[in-house]
Specification:
alpha/beta, binds alpha-D-glucopyranuronic acid
Length: 400
């Protein structure tokens, strides 16, 4: 009997330990009063401790430093070259959307080390005499039916008609063309072209691959006479929004960045440890970020960056971030604070962000500002409301 009792006690203790571990590891904090004090790395202080006073030092010293820190520690190296990019228009429809748009389904093939990766682009261009037109490119991380080229299926995740009616081109590709979103299959895509990435501690993984793909689509846009490649907004939701931020930071040709509910390792500050944390994201999605990033599990303060610096690296280009009121997992306040803490980089260009001192209320979009923001009423999603504000934001900034 004592043996049984000891066993029961031991099991109780052991299970208690496991559940405490699970709680410590994964239970998210949603209580603002429990956010511990933290110090963010200074956006405008170089590694050599020099204060950045002007955009020349920013562009030649500090911004490249920040990009390198994100490559090294978070998203991984970005391959700088490829051998060949070709494209072919697989299908067109000159009277799509009841004659309002031209559909082009374009197959973009990128070859490196004799290996190809194929990106299937769905593109609608508005029928209007003035060409080229600015456009929106969505990094689609949800079902392919969201971007149905036939328009038999329509979805607010990619409300192509709404964008066309506003006079912009609208395009999308699916993340699985670059790296399937799966812990083992993610290697079956771009990473076949750059196998050295897989062995490097700072090698890119899925999110880096998706961002790389967005840049290859931009390479294609530069060859498409219908598209004003100097006015392309890269858009992503959630994990796709982490990729849209990284794409815009890495590739200055993106004229605008839109990051919707991107949360942890997207637009939200990691040091707040509010909602999703670095340990949780690295554990559940080990195929998204570098091996080096795992060093920062429960160790956010050791990171030489935080996400406000990624936003700063996009300056002076317009950036719009969103949240949803019920999506605390993605830390709406932490996103707003990341934008606030990137204001000084925009300031180097004489640009004011016009963001209020504190997060605006629910459904109070701020579009007349170089950094825009809204917190939509509702759940984690990309909706027609979100898109209608992206379009307002574009109207302000693409007109300039
Ligand atoms: C999970 C993940 C988030 C991600 C989200 C999504 O919730 O933890 O980091 O943003 O999926 O992509 O919808």
């Amino acid at each position: 009997m004592p043996y049984l009792r000891n066993f029961a006690l031991f099991s109780f203790f052991f299970l208690g330990l496991i559940s405490a571990y699970a709680q410590n590891t994964f239970e998210a904090n949603y209580d603002e009063s429990k956010v511990q004090p933290y110090t963010l790395p200074d956006v405008l202080k170089t590694a050599a401790n020099q204060k950045v006073q002007n955009k020349t030092t920013w562009e030649t010293v500090r911004r490249p430093e920040i990009i390198r820190l994100f490559e090294e520690n978070v998203y991984g190296q970005m391959p700088k070259s490829y051998d060949r990019l070709t494209y072919s228009v697989k299908n067109t429809n000159a009277s799509a959307m009841a004659g309002k748009a031209t559909l082009k389904e374009v197959l973009i093939e990128v070859v490196h080390n004799s290996k190809p990766v194929k990106i299937n682009l769905v593109l609608f261009v508005p029928k209007k005499p003035q060409k080229p037109v600015p456009g929106f490119l969505l990094i689609n991380n949800r079902g392919k039916d969201n971007t149905d080229p036939t328009r038999a299926h329509k979805s607010d995740f990619w409300p192509a008609e709404m964008v066309i009616d506003s006079g912009y081109a609208v395009a999308a590709f699916h993340v699985s063309d670059l790296a399937p979103d799966d812990t083992s299959r993610y290697v079956n895509g771009v990473l076949q072209l750059y196998p050295e990435q897989l062995t490097a501690n700072n090698g890119m993984r899925a999110i880096g691959a998706w961002a790389w793909g967005a840049s290859r689509v931009l390479d294609y846009f530069e060859k498409d006479a219908d598209i004003d490649a100097k006015k392309v907004a890269v858009v992503g939701h959630s994990r796709g929004g982490k990729a849209s931020l990284w794409a815009a930071a890495e590739d200055k040709r993106f004229a605008m960045c839109i990051t919707n509910c991107s949360g942890n390792t997207g637009a939200a500050l990691s040091r707040r440890r509010f909602g999703e944390t670095i340990r949780r994201i690295n554990t559940v999605f080990p195929h998204w970020f570098t091996r080096n990033y795992k060093k920062f599990n429960d160790n956010e303060d050791a990171l030489p960056v935080d996400q406000h610096m990624l936003i700063a690296a996009i300056a002076p280009r317009p950036l719009y971030a969103t949240n949803a009121s019920k999506d605390l997992w993605a830390d709406p306040r932490g996103t707003f604070l990341a934008l606030k803490n990137a204001e000084n980089a925009y300031g180097l260009y004489g640009l004011k962000s016009n963001l209020p001192a504190e997060s605006p209320g629910i459904n109070q979009p701020i579009v007349n500002s170089q950094m825009g923001y809204h917190n939509r009423e509702g759940e984690h999603d990309l909706t027609a409301y979100d898109w209608s504000n992206f379009l307002k934001f574009a109207r302000v900034h693409f007109r300039k």
